[in-house]
Structure formats: C-alpha cells, structure tokens
Amino acid sequence: xxxxxxxxxxxxxxxxxxxxxxxxxxxxxxxxxxxxxxxxxxxxxxxxxxxxxxxxxxxxxxxxxxxxxxxxxxxxxxxxxxxxxxxxxxxx
Length: 92
Hints:
The chain is an all-beta fold and 92 residues long. It has a domain at 3-39. Helices cover 0% and strands 15% of the residues. The chain contains no helices and three strands. It has strands at residues 3-8, 14-18, 37-39. A three-stranded antiparallel sheet has the order 2-1-3, with no helix packed on it. A hairpin with a 5-residue loop joins strand 1 and strand 2 (14-18). The protein is rod-shaped, with a radius of gyration of 34 Å. The N and C termini lie far apart (84 Å).
C-alpha cells in the first residue's frame, strides 16, 4: 500500500496517509477541520533492490561456462593425462 501526501488548501497543513489504492482521497483537514485537503503529486519512493542478483558482477559470464548461441568459444588448452602412480614395491 502506498503512502500519499496531502496538503490543505486553506491552512497549508501537510500530512502523509498510508492508504490502499482503492481508498478514496482524504478531504477533511485534521488541523482546520475544513474539507479542503488535496492529494499532492508525489515522485514515488523509488525502487530498491536487495539481495543477490542485482549487481553487474552477478551477470558477468563465469569462466568455464558454455557459450550461448551465436558466441564463439575460445580455444581450450588440451588436458594432459598423467599415468597413475605405480604402487610401491613391497620389501620382504
């Protein structure tokens, strides 16, 4: 639910009201008790992202991932296979 700002056209009193978007705008000024309260045009509260996934570094391609369609894959280094270590000879 958004917070709306109101200002009285008679006395200049300003208030904020936490209302549903379906609620009717307030009209009665709590200071002068006249029905001259008008809703002000607000700039909005802004958008706040919290948590992971919202930083530019989170979208960078990680090394070792598959290329997407249309991308060329950099040549990879051939892997060397090393022979398995021979078991140590038992001495009796």
